Amino acid sequence: MLPRIRTCVFSVCLFAFLILAQFPVVAQQTPQPPHQSTPHTGDLNPPADEDEGRARITREMEKKAAKERVAALKNDTDKLLKLSVELKAYVDKSDENVLSLEVIKKAEEIEKLAKSVKDKMKGPN
Questions:
Q1: Contact (Cβ atoms closer than 8 angstroms) between residue 91 and residue 103
Q2: 24: cis peptide before it, omega within 30°?
Q3: What is the pLDDT along the chain (125 residues), one digit of tens a residue?
Q4: Radius of gyration over alpha carbons of the chain, in Å?
Q5: Which are the contacts of 2, defined by CB distance < 8 A and separation ≥ 6?
Q6: Is the full-model pTM beyond 0.70?
C-alpha cells in the first residue's frame, strides 16, 4: 500500500510542478486604435462613441477578470504545494504497516484542488 501512496504523491507533485511551470500567465491584449475625437454634432446617440465605450468597458472587464484569475491561480498553486509537502511528510512518517486516514484525506484534497487549478487555467471558455 505504501508504494501506491508514494506513486500518488509523486504524481501529485509532478502535476503541481507542471501547473507551476506554466506561470506567468499573461492576459493577451488587443492593440487599441488611437482615440480620435469627433466634434459633437448634437446627435443624442452617436453609435461610434457607444460602440467604442462598450468595447473599452468590455476590455477593462476582461483585463480585471484575467488579473483575478491569475491571482486565484497563484493562491491555489501555493496551497497545492503546501498540501503536497504535508502529504509527503505524512507518507514519510508512516511505514508499511500503518496507513493514516489523514494521508488519504490529504491526497483527496490535493486532487480536488489540482482539478480546480486545471479548470481555472483553461479560462472562462
A1: yes
A2: yes
A3: 556 665 655 566 556 555 655 555 444 445 555 555 555 555 555 567 888 899 999 999 999 998 999 999 999 999 999 999 998 888 888 777 777 788 888 999 999 999 999 988 887 76
A4: 24
A5: 91, 94, 95, 96, 99
A6: no
Instruction: Render the burial of 7-33: b for 16+ CB within 10 Å, e for the rest.
Output: ebbeebbebbeebeeeeeeeeeeeeee
For residues 60 and 47, what is the distance between their CA atoms, to the nearest angstrom? 20
Residue type, 53: G
Q: Which three cell numbers mark 70? A: 491569475
Chain position carrying cell 448634437:
42
Q: Assess contact for 103 and 5: CB atoms under 8 A.
A: yes
Secondary structure letter of residue 96 according to DSSP: T
Whole-number Å distance between alpha carbons of 6 and 91: 7
Nearest to 80 by CA among 22, 123, 124, 1: 22
User: Using CA atoms, how far apart are residues 56 and 46, in angstroms rounded to an integer?
Assistant: 16
- Rounded Cα distance between 39 and 24, Å, is 43
